[in-house]
Automatic annotation (TrEMBL):
It is found in: Membrane. This is Two-pore potassium channel 5 isoform X1. Belongs to the two pore domain potassium channel (TC 1.A.1.7) family. It comes from Cinnamomum micranthum f. kanehirae. One of its GO terms (cellular component) is plant-type vacuole membrane. Its main location: membrane. InterPro entries: 2pore_dom_K_chnl, EF_Hand_1_Ca_BS, K_chnl_dom.
Length: 355
């Protein structure tokens, strides 16, 4: 008896399905598609929204150099004018050797401003003593402005001139220049060079004062050098001082410049010591091994491990480059640019924040 062909085909199909092996499992997604890196030249957005444009970059606030110089010069002129007027009309309230009223007034004002205290011109009346107290206090404020403002400005210009001269001369690749004069990576003059320049200016001021005291004031070489050093260091024992009109005119300019130069030299020496100490501490911090306490402190997200960004933040805080308050302020700024808490800032977020 013949079987029905349809039944035979169904049975054969069933047998084939039973014999045919099952297909292998699909490989995981990571094996199917290779890990692709996004190209740096790829567009940030697939489509730029209409009506949005890149806002202009805000300018960084900075102080005007010309205004700082102008303010300092005006304050100095005002200070000297007040001192000259008070001394000129009240000369009988002061004791000391006289040369010319205007020259003596300028000399007294500069000696008071620089806090040298020769004692060759001194107040003797209650009015003059009260005026001198107020005059000295205002002089301290002016010295702070001059030292922190004008002197720093002049030294910055000097540093820029040195860097520009070295680059123009093409000596930036010289081994001696790179290792002892400038810091190529940071683009500034090295601390040791600043110390050398500051000490050189002090030596120049002492030498100039010694020569003028010897040839103008007719002092001996030892006494000239002695008075010059006592003057630039603002010690001023009072046993010797400027007596002639020419010497006092020279002292008006020389004392102001030399005392500021010496003060800046001491600050540069202190900066060099602090910089050396910071470099030693930074080297120790960067080279020491991480501990369990460090791991717990660096784990900002409390997820049991430290990411690269968390480790960088931890080391920056340990080095004293940033503080926890700075990190919190940056996080607040990030949250403003990321209103949906997606954990990232896109170009669209930036453009919408300025719209």
């Amino acid at each position: 008896m013949d079987t029905h062909p349809l039944l035979n085909s169904q049975s054969n199909t069933t047998q084939d399905d039973e014999i045919q092996p099952s297909p292998p499992p699909e490989p995981p997604l990571s094996a199917q598609r290779p890990f692709l890196h996004r190209s740096r030249t790829a567009p940030a957005l697939s489509a730029m929204p209409l009506g949005l444009s890149d806002p202009p970059r805000p300018h960084k606030p900075h102080s005007s150099n010309s205004s700082l110089l102008t303010q300092s010069l005006l304050l100095l002129i005002l200070y000297l004018i007040v001192g000259v007027i008070i001394y000129y009309f009240n000369r009988h309230h002061f004791s000391g050797a006289e040369t010319h009223p205007i020259v003596d007034a300028l000399y007294f004002s500069i000696v008071t401003l620089c806090t040298i205290g020769y004692g060759d011109i001194a107040p003797i009346s209650p009015f003059a003593k009260a005026f001198s107290c107020i005059f000295v206090l205002f002089g301290f404020g002016f010295l702070d402005i001059a030292l922190s403002g004008v002197v720093n400005l002049v030294l910055d210009e000097q540093e820029n001139t040195i860097l520009a001269g070295i680059q123009a001369a093409g000596t930036g690749d010289n081994h001696f220049t790179k290792n002892y004069i400038i810091d190529v990576e940071k683009g500034r003059v090295r601390i040791r060079t600043k110390v050398g320049l500051s000490l050189g200016v002090v030596v120049l001021c002492v030498g100039a004062g010694t020569l003028v005291l010897f040839f103008v004031e007719r002092l001996g070489w030892i006494d000239s050098f002695y008075l010059s050093v006592m003057s630039v260091t603002t010690v001023g024992y009072g046993d010797k001082a400027f007596r002639t009109m020419g010497g006092r005119l020279f002292a008006v300019i020389w004392l102001l410049l030399s005392t500021l130069a010496v003060a800046r030299a001491f600050l540069t020496l202190a900066e060099a010591r602090i910089d050396k100490r910071h470099r030693r501490i930074s080297k120790w911090i960067l080279n020491r091994e991480i501990t369990v306490e460090d791991l717990l402190a660096a784990d900002i997200n409390n997820n049991g491990f430290v990411s690269k960004s968390e480790y960088v933040l931890f080391k920056l805080k340990e080095l004293g480059k940033i503080a926890e308050r700075d990190v919190l302020q940056i996080c607040v700024q990030f949250s403003k640019l990321d209103p949906y808490n997606s954990g990232k800032i896109t170009l669209l977020d930036v453009l919408q924040s300025h719209s």
